[in-house]
Specification:
Elements (H helix, E strand, L loop, with lengths): L1 E7 L5 H16 L4 E7 L10 H9 L14 H4 L4 E4 L2 H10 L7 E3 H11 L13 H25 L14 H26 L3
Parallel strand pairs: 1-2, 1-3, 3-4
Protein name: Protein-tyrosine phosphatase
GO molecular function, one term: protein tyrosine phosphatase activity
Family: Belongs to the low molecular weight phosphotyrosine protein phosphatase family.
């Protein structure tokens, strides 16, 4: 099982969007291989997903029923293979909380840039298939390769690594959040989809 944590501030807008979208789509591609959770650095603990973020998520066919915000702490960061922060400040705060997580913590957009950098890997570098054992082996190899590609990806990435916080902002800011976040999430799903099927 690959454990991924997404992190924003309140854990009601950006990180639940990322969590629920990734869980839904990765379940479809590689069933029972991923557990996606989210947390907030200053979470509105116990709150449901923000209504407008939830509507944006519904627009791409994913529901938010049952979601409850939770606080980022030592317990929530423990045991994750990958942590995807929504801003560079969130990434830095996670690493400050646990320096050993440096190599496993990226912003979402940064990780998408890393995957783009790794798209040139020769066929056969990463094992193919969607059996849970193969998926675990593939992601272990991917995350090692990602560490080496990180610097080059950050240099080539054009634009901000952050995803804007729409909380209590106007509707166009929610649109901007989706525009910044959704392509990065889809690139993660696309990577898994490309490798989950045998050639």
């Amino acid at each position: 099982m690959i454990n991924i944590l997404t992190v924003c501030t309140g854990n009601i807008c950006r990180s639940p969007y990322a969590e629920l979208f990734l869980q839904n789509e990765l379940n479809r591609v590689s069933p029972e291989s991923f557990t996606i959770r989210s947390a907030g650095s200053h979470a509105l603990v116990g709150h449901q997903m923000d209504e407008r973020s939830s509507m944006k998520l519904h627009d791409v066919g994913v529901g938010s029923d049952g979601f409850v915000a939770r606080q980022l702490n030592e317990s929530t960061i423990r045991g994750n293979d990958l942590i995807l922060a929504l801003t560079d400040e969130h990434r830095k705060s996670i690493v400050a909380m646990s320096p050993r997580l440096l190599k496993r913590t990226y912003t979402v957009r940064e990780f998408a840039a890393v995957l783009a950098e790794l798209s040139a890997l020769p066929d056969g570098t990463l094992p193919r298939g969607n059996d849970t054992t193969i998926v675990e082996t593939r992601w272990a190899a991917l995350l090692k390769a990602a560490q080496l590609a990180r610097h080059a990806a950050r240099i080539k990435f054009e634009g901000d690594l952050d995803v804007i916080d729409p909380y209590r902002q106007s509707d166009p800011v929610y649109d901007q959040m989706v525009d910044e976040l959704l392509p990065a999430l889809r690139s993660i799903v696309h990577f898994e989809s490309r490798h989950a099927t045998e050639k």
